[in-house]
Amino acid sequence: MSKVLVVYHSGYGHTKVVAEHVAKGAEAQVVAISAEGEITDAEWAALDAADAIIFGTPTYMGNVSWQFKKFADATSKIWFTRGWQDKVFGGFTNSASPNGDKQVTLITLQTLASQHGGIWVSLGMPPSNTLEATADDPNNLGGSVGLLARSPANAGVDGVQKGDLITAEHYGKRIADIAARLKV
């Protein structure tokens, strides 16, 4: 079994819900980036000890939240020592729009993982893109690089689309399974 951590920022609670479902699928610990863009020393140590790290952030203005960016910038000390070299990585994002430039956010997360010398795990699930497909279907937003999730702007935290939460659990499990296979 591998040790997986989900590190995320959530501005309004929607991304937290997605993070919890990813963590459920991966049987992972969650690390919440604070409203000030900080995590504790113990959480940094847990990330260093993890076999896999899953990044999560809302998409704000076409990219990661500033709190996640502050966290990402703080990983430069780890990058310098190659501390996360060969770890398994994945990532997810959430926004109000079906697209909302989420792909840019995922590419930012994938680039961060690649800069650390990590192994990125794609979603590994075909899109639900038939005429009959609904927001209750897995991968209804058609992601492939990582997990895309949607929470309508006027919805509470219970408004994250059902299909996205199903996809989140699948993705978490996929990352944990791949990390376990690579650990052997």
Secondary-structure map:
Blueprint: E1 4-8, H1 14-26, E2 29-32, H2 41-49, E3 52-60, E4 63-64, H3 66-74, H4 76-81, E5 88-95, H5 102-115, E6 119-120, E7 147-150, H6 162-183
Parallel strand pairs: 1-2, 1-3, 3-5, 5-6, 5-7
Antiparallel strand pairs: 3-4
Structural write-up:
This protein is of the alpha/beta class. Helices cover 40% and strands 18% of the residues. The chain has helices at residues 14-26, 41-49, 66-74, 76-81, 102-115, 162-183; strands spanning 4-8, 29-32, 52-60, 63-64, 88-95, 119-120, 147-150. Strands 1, 2, 3, 4, 5, 6 and 7 form a 7-stranded mixed beta sheet that branches. β5, α5 and β6 (119-120) form a beta-alpha-beta unit. α1 packs across α6. The chain is globular, with a radius of gyration of 15 Å. The model has no long low-confidence stretch (mean pLDDT 96).
Q: Percent of residues in helical segments? A: 25-40%
Number of helices: 6
Strand coverage percent: 15-25%
Main structural class: alpha/beta
**Major sheet attributes:** 7 strands, mixed
Q: How many DSSP E strands?
A: 7
Q: What does the overall shape look like?
A: globular
Order of helices and strands: EHEHEEHHEHEEH
Average pLDDT rating: 96
**What is the CA-atom radius of gyration, in angstroms?**
15 Å
Domain Flavodoxin-like: 4-146
Keywords: Flavoprotein, FMN
Protein name: FMN reductase
Cofactor: FMN
